[in-house]
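Attaching the record inline, Q. Sequence:
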Amino acid sequence: MRYGQGYYNSDARYDSPDEPPPTNPQPTHTMIRFDRFFINPFDDDGISLDELSAYTVDNLQRMINNNPGAFLNARINATTVAFTTLESCVDSDQAKLGLRKARVMLKDTFRAGLSKQITKIHAAIVAEYGAASAVELEAFPYGRKIFQDSTDEHLNNHFNTLVTALTPHVAQMGPDALADAGGLQSNWTGLYAASTSATGVKNATVEGKKAARKALQHELFLTLLFIASAFPGQPEKAALYMRQSLLEDHPAAEPEPEPPAPPPPTP
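Structure, as predicted:
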């Protein structure tokens, strides 16, 4: 209601809005519906195979690099298996090549961050038993650098040595060092097997292709739920592990307008 439009003895005020407020205003905050948490967002038909693959690679890399206490090992392994199975079902050689490159990238990501995690396990041994102790020598007979220098095919042997050496000392050291070592070995086993696996059958059935994609989408959904349950009330953790933008179509930028033509020369 604007100034000069009020009525004597009415409830309207000169400074009131043009329209009266609703008698039953909507609440400013609406609770999220529970059933939304049961819907798999990765089942969206608008997500292409390329987008799904890009998201999966990024998600796996982030889980490998942010895996304190090896709590994500099961999710890393399950996603890797599903991702590998999908490759055997795609028709396009270009898509197969992209997926193979993605798996090699994941393996390289794991190895790039391995030194830091091995150093943590080594520090736990030294803190408990001291440098050059029998336990340290048993766990690292070739030193820590062997985990950096070893070829892929021999790396698992060094993990075996480390896990075997730590197993009898859980009572004194606690379970963390052994859990970290076992988790690294488990992750490496899955990533190495995936990076060296055969291409697979080229003539997979349509049903087989759909099932492989559905299985990957299911594992990605379980990972989403697992991470959410690990960090309740911390929505900022979603960005640490998951880049939703990789699954979304982004309109192409509009081309810049052509500069105006110069005026014709004056005669």
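The first helix runs from residue 49 to 65. The chain is about 55% helix and 0% strand.

More tomorrow.
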